[in-house]
């Protein structure tokens, strides 16, 4: 380990010398991301042309922000995003490895085993893609994915994801608050709920021909939940567009609710005055309610929700960690449910 | 076939083969080959193997009679003990990886959740069978009483499938449950059919 240190700071024994090429690789967090690197080049160019004064301040700010951005896995198209300023939107917990987040999925249209979606979802056609906006809304219509992507600035949101099955991850999503879209399409005052319909295509989704659930998979939120800034219309993760098994090309992420509330591969967003019948509630009403907020005090009939296993982090032999009320987003979303009996509205 | 079954190597060979799943799971767990959620993988696969060995041990008598291979009976006790071995592993994985050996939590889980209760009941019912599997126990109990006691395994089969069914219920994804229910159903139906026909004869 210390053999190279003749020229280096002797205290920095963390540097790793590769056995093969003799190169000294810094730890991943010390590698300058390409985006920052090109920004620095740009800055030097600006300095040379004398325009640096104003640019310097914004660059310094961007630099500070971008340093915390998640490293890209380099598998899919990059999706540039700024760090979010929304309260609670950026947890500092250790981010789950990309291979786990993109390899351990519940996406029943592609199979019921958690390794099935990564294996089967390659058939999904994500382009062209449109989302129908329907129901009690002033500006209904079909919105193309390209327009939706550009509708508002993309942000990185590092959220905890708690699955109803008792495991969790930390995922850096890319998207913007769903409220941005809702404001643009102007729902009528009679609209009380938002229904999310996901793709159900027999040709490209092998399990849509089975009766595992009543397809298409439908989810829903109350209007105030949908308008909450943490509710994310999501186009990417880990700085890239969404992998197909994670719900490409766009999905919902509602971090204080169990994962199944966040529909994948959305094709329709409908504004309604009635509580939508959601897919899991229809399949097993006594097990899955409309709200399905993460709640350690309300057990699933078949297992406890008090604890969870953080994928890739909590080892086989370590105690599972305690599940937090509203998945740790109580400060942000608790007031949405003030006075509600959360045992009754599970 | 009969000669092979009677050879002194047959039993150790079968035992080694039956311990392969366990060896694989231990290897996979230590080599990080169990995917993103190794705890879940271990609990589920030990449960799967318990059901598989239950099918195997209950297939011994029907196969022995229908295929005319009396020497198959030699393997019945060992297969029965393997069911117990895998159910113990299953219980151990659940208690350890799912419940962190919190005995109070486990006790609460058993009383609160029907699907856990049913699985635990199946384990409890298997315990006296494993405990009376050696020759002296058979002599001590007398063969007829021993045989009555060991009919508990039919109840264990029903509870085991119910346990699996309840775990999968609500997901309309019961194909695998149906395979086990079908196999065990046929094996139990064969016994019923034989009882009725032999008595009439």
Structure description:
The complex is a heterodimer of chains A (346) and B (201). With 346 residues, chain A is of the alpha+beta class. Chain A is built from nine helices and 15 strands. In chain A, strands 3, 6, 7, 10, 11, 12, 14 and 15 form an eight-stranded mixed beta sheet that branches. In chain A, strands 5-4-13-8-9 form a five-stranded mixed beta sheet. A two-stranded antiparallel sheet of chain A has the order 1-2. In chain A, strand 6 and strand 7 (167-177) form a beta hairpin. Chain B is built from ten helices and no strands. The longest helix of chain B is centred in the N-terminal third of the chain and has 29 residues, at 38-66. Chain B is mostly helical. Chain B has helices at residues 2-6, 10-30, 38-66, 76-98, 103-112, 114-131, 135-141, 143-150, 152-168, 175-200. In chain B, helix 7 packs across helix 8. Classes of the chains: A alpha+beta (346), B mainly alpha (201). At the A-B interface, loops of A face helix 3, helix 4 and helix 5 of B.
Concise summary:
With 346 residues, chain A is α+β, with helices and mostly antiparallel strands. Helix content of chain A is 20%, strand content 20%. Chain B is an all-alpha fold and 201 residues long.
Give the overall shape of chain B, derived from the CA principal axes. Answer: globular
Q: Order of SSEs of chain B, N→C?
A: HHHHHHHHHH
- Ranges of chain A with pLDDT <50 over ≥5 residues? 1-19, 21-26, 56-68
Number of strands of chain A: 15
User: What share of the residues of chain A lie within helices?
Assistant: 10-25%
- What is the multimeric organization of the chains shown? heterodimer
**Number of continuous helical runs of chain A:** 9
Largest sheet of chain B: none
Which pair has the most extensive contact? Answer: A-B, 26 and 24 residues
Strand content of chain A: 15-25%
From the N-terminal CA to the C-terminal CA of chain A, the straight-line distance is: 55 Å
Structural class of chain A: alpha+beta
Helix amount of chain B, in percent? over 70%
Q: Topology as H/E string of chain A?
A: EEHHEHHEEHEEHEEHEEEEHEEH
